[in-house]
């Protein structure tokens, strides 16, 4: 299998995002910490644990609970449970475009902060002059300076539709992916559209729901929920690569498109697949720093340790290796006594057999599942201690059941404007009143809230929401609910 050289940094906690910071990158850890990585030295902490950072402006960090923090503050931060949380933060030239839980889209610069437009559902894309968003009016482009509407897409169909992806194009154009709500007629289609500044240029139907669009150095591309990466042209869509699983991130690195799916990152050229690297986590964020591609991700398993930062050398030659060697770069986990992460600069050297069981990276998912613990010599004394511990009925030895419930599926009646306001509430049991983390998401995986309750404005149709709740001790619980708006 063709691959590129990868180096790795061990981390004390798994990174779930990457924020640009000039000539460095900030790794967002699951516990809210920020680590700065300059491409040379080990990542160093620049922000203490707390609410998760979403964006950076100057030295001010914008967090998902609506709070702000200063780079360099390494103390633990408390969540603002009464604040208005942030859902999205997109960096544009000299500013940060944010969307809060109330639907206010704001533009923040070092000199001012102002509301551009309200009742926004999601930000699809933004640049220095414009922002592309979905609201009750449909898909709309606003001038970022004045808030005026500079372009809007006519809605289609009598039963409503959902914009599943959209992105801005140079010259004022827009790529759009939509899904009709109706089950019969020409509305029961998934389509990709290309709009010029003044009119529709082409429209193509597709079998699977399209979840991502991009204009790249190898052309205009899309990816759907099955993991297919598609080339878009006026004549139609063509398969570039089948990733086999939903794409979690795409990044143009100039002449190649990097696609993160399952436990891999694939490098695609105009001719197709060029190389593949494997990560022990499912890559969720990609970023370029000079000639290096940064990869972070989580394997979704609470029983495994933190996943490392992978650094792919984009200037090195592509080499052919056995698939089992794709994870040879993975560094050993940090021991509690370590002060800083350690970088793997070369493949592990061979060691004596009795030492080789201390730790070794699994060569793949199947190998990881086959790992067995070394034999342990049992004794009667150990057995007696184990039986005593299992028979101890004191509250301290029994973990309370942890669960979350969103109740039964809901029905709501839309108003005269075709929209219904629905309050979703969670019931959590087996957890303390503080320290619980909430993550609301839509059916396509987009995170839309971080509080125990969620107020949503929904158009006609069926909508599904999921809530993942994290106990302070690290356990997770999840539930889903469907809302039918008639």
Average pLDDT rating: 85
Could you name the CATH class of the largest domain?
A: Mainly Beta
Number of H/I helices: 2
CATH homologous superfamily assignment of the largest domain: YVTN repeat-like/Quinoprotein amine dehydrogenase
Unreliable residue runs: 337-374, 393-398
What is this entry, summarized?
The chain is mainly beta and 486 residues long. A 5-stranded antiparallel β-sheet has the order 30-31-32-2-34, with no helix packed on it. A 5-stranded mixed β-sheet has the order 36-43-42-39-40, with no helix packed on it.
Task: Record the SSE blueprint.
Layout (H helix, E strand, L loop, with lengths): L1 E2 L2 E4 L5 E7 L2 E6 L4 E4 L6 E4 L5 E5 L2 E4 L4 E3 L15 E7 L2 E6 L4 E4 L4 E5 L2 E7 L3 E6 L2 E6 L5 E4 L8 E8 L5 E7 L9 E6 L4 E7 L3 E7 L2 E6 L3 E6 L2 E7 L4 E6 L4 E5 L2 E6 L2 E7 L3 E8 L2 E7 L10 E5 L5 E2 L22 E2 L20 H6 L9 H12 L11 E3 L4 E3 L6 E7 L1 E3 L7 E6 L4 E3 L3 E7 L1 E10 L5 E10 L1
Parallel strand pairs: 36-43
Antiparallel strand pairs: 1-33, 2-32, 2-34, 3-4, 4-5, 5-6, 7-8, 8-9, 10-11, 11-12, 12-13, 14-15, 15-16, 16-17, 18-19, 19-20, 20-21, 22-23, 23-24, 24-25, 26-27, 27-28, 28-29, 30-31, 31-32, 35-38, 37-41, 39-40, 39-42, 42-43
Summary keywords:
single chain; about 475 residues; mainly beta; Methylamine Dehydrogenase, Chain H; Immunoglobulin-like; five-stranded antiparallel beta sheet; five-stranded mixed beta sheet; 2 helices; globular
């Amino acid at each position: 299998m063709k691959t590129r050289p990868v180096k790795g940094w061990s981390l004390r906690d798994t990174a779930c995002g990457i924020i640009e910071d000039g000539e460095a990158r900030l790794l967002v850890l699951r516990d809210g910490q920020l680590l700065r990585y300059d491409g040379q030295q080990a990542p160093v902490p620049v922000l203490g644990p707390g609410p998760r950072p979403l964006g950076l402006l100057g030295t001010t960090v914008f967090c998902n609970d609506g709070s702000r923090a200063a780079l360099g503050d390494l103390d633990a931060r408390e969540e603002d449970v009464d604040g208005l949380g942030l859902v999205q933060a997109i960096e544009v030239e000299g500013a940060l475009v944010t969307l809060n839980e109330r639907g206010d889209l704001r533009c923040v610069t070092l000199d001012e902060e102002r509301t551009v437009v309200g009742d926004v559902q999601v930000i699809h894309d933004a640049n220095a002059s414009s922002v592309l968003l979905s609201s009750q009016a449909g898909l709309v482009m606003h001038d970022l300076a004045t808030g005026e509407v500079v372009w809007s897409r006519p809605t289609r169909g009598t039963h409503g539709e959902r914009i599943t992806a959209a992105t801005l194009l140079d010259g004022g154009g827009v790529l759009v992916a939509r899904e009709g709500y109706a089950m019969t007629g020409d509305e029961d289609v998934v389509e990709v559209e290309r709009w010029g500044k003044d009119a529709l240029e082409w429209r193509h139907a597709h079998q699977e729901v399209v979840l991502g669009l991009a204009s790249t150095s190898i052309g205009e591309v899309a990816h759907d929920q099955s993991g297919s990466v598609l080339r878009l042209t006026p004549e139609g869509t063509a398969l570039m690569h089948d990733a086999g699983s939903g794409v979690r991130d795409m990044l143009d690195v100039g002449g190649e498109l990097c696609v993160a799916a399952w436990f891999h990152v694939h490098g695609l050229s105009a001719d197709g697949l060029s190389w593949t690297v494997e990560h022990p986590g499912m890559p969720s964020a990609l970023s370029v720093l000079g000639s290096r591609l940064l990869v972070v991700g989580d394997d979704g398993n609470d029983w495994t340790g933190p996943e490392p930062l992978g650094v792919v050398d984009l200037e090195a030659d592509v080499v052919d290796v056995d698939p089992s060697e794709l994870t040879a770069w993975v560094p050993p986990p940090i021991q509690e006594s370590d002060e800083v992460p350690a970088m793997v600069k070369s493949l592990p050297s061979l060691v004596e057999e009795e030492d080789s069981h201390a730790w070794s990276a699994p060569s793949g998912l199947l190998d990881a599942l086959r790992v067995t613990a070394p034999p342990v010599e049992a004794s009667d004394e150990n057995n007696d201690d184990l039986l005593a511990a299992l028979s101890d009925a004191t509250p301290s030895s029994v973990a309370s059941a942890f669960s979350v419930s969103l109740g039964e599926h809901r029905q709501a009646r839309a108003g005269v404007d075709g929209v219904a306001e629905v309050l979703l509430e969670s019931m959590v049991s087996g957890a303390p009143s503080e320290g619980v983390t909430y993550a609301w998401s839509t059916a396509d995986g987009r995170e839309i809230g971080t509080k125990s309750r969620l107020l949503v404005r929904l158009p006609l149709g069926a909508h599904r929401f999921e809530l993942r709740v994290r106990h302070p001790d690290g356990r997770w619980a999840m539930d889903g609910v469907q809302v039918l708006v008639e």
